[in-house]
């Protein structure tokens, strides 16, 4: 593990040497570990030069990650706990019922988790079963609700009938690939304005491959305060979990 110093700040980093790479790239993940991806022909001096030139970016990224909210404590799925939905928290009521496996429902004001009496205790197995029921409900609901928000923005971008797929995207809130928008199901936990920002962000990629000025101008025409919404997601994304 190497170290790069910016004043009193020490940033450990590792070098990932790549055969098929021509430029030096940097990435800083949630664990605050910096990875430098470099071509095999690069020297350590050239890598240090890149690190020197990207010091402002490194500090912004480092402190930004440190500012992010911590994930909430793991749930045991007991009555009185709260579950998030569209930016609000709703009480969870757990009741015993004649069901083979846990089932979650929502009436607009409260979540109800029906469980077999053997799933009522907070042991590890029953917690996993209850969590799976909760996640399954959110996945189904997100797959129904998130695509409904797309047509209003598609028409303004000159698009129509864009395919929207909702699922479990690792490390991403959304992506656009070959005419299809993929959204992370956890967006259903966020406020609707955040859902719309991610959706518009991905729809704008239908016209712009990269994050150019033209891309952000397109996003801004539909979401004028997109920077605030993007910042909200950066700071609160870790809290969007069940």
From TrEMBL:
Residue ranges annotated for the YgjP-like metallopeptidase domain, each copy included: 23-234
InterPro entries with a match to the protein in the record: UTP_pyrophosphatase-like (IPR053136), YgjP-like_metallopeptidase (IPR002725)
UniProt superkingdom: Archaea
Protein name, UniProt field: YgjP-like metallopeptidase domain-containing protein
């Amino acid at each position: 593990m190497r170290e790069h110093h910016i004043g009193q700040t020490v940033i450990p980093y590792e070098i990932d040497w790549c055969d098929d790479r021509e430029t030096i790239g940097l990435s800083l993940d949630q664990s605050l570990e910096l990875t430098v991806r470099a071509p095999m022909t690069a020297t350590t001096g050239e890598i240090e030069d890149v690190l020197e030139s990207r010091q402002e970016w490194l500090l912004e990224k480092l402190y930004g990650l440190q500012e992010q909210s911590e994930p909430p404590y793991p749930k045991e799925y007991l009555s009185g706990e709260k579950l998030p939905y569209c930016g609000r928290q709703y009480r969870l009521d757990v009741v015993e019922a004649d069901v083979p496996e846990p089932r979650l429902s929502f009436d607009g004001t409260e979540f109800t988790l029906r469980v077999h009496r053997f799933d009522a205790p907070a042991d590890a197995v029953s917690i996993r079963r209850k969590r799976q029921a909760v996640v399954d409900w959110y996945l189904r609901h997100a797959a129904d609700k998130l695509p409904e928000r797309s047509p209003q923005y598609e028409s303004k971008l000159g698009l129509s009938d864009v395919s929207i797929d909702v699922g479990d995207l690792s490390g991403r809130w959304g992506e656009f690939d070959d005419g299809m928008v993929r959204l992370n199901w956890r967006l259903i936990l966020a406020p609707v304005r955040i859902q719309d920002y991610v959706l518009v962000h991905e729809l704008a990629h239908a016209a712009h491959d990269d994050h150019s000025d033209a891309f952000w101008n397109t996003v801004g025409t539909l979401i004028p305060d997109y920077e605030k919404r993007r910042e909200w997601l950066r700071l609160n994304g870790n809290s969007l979990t069940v």
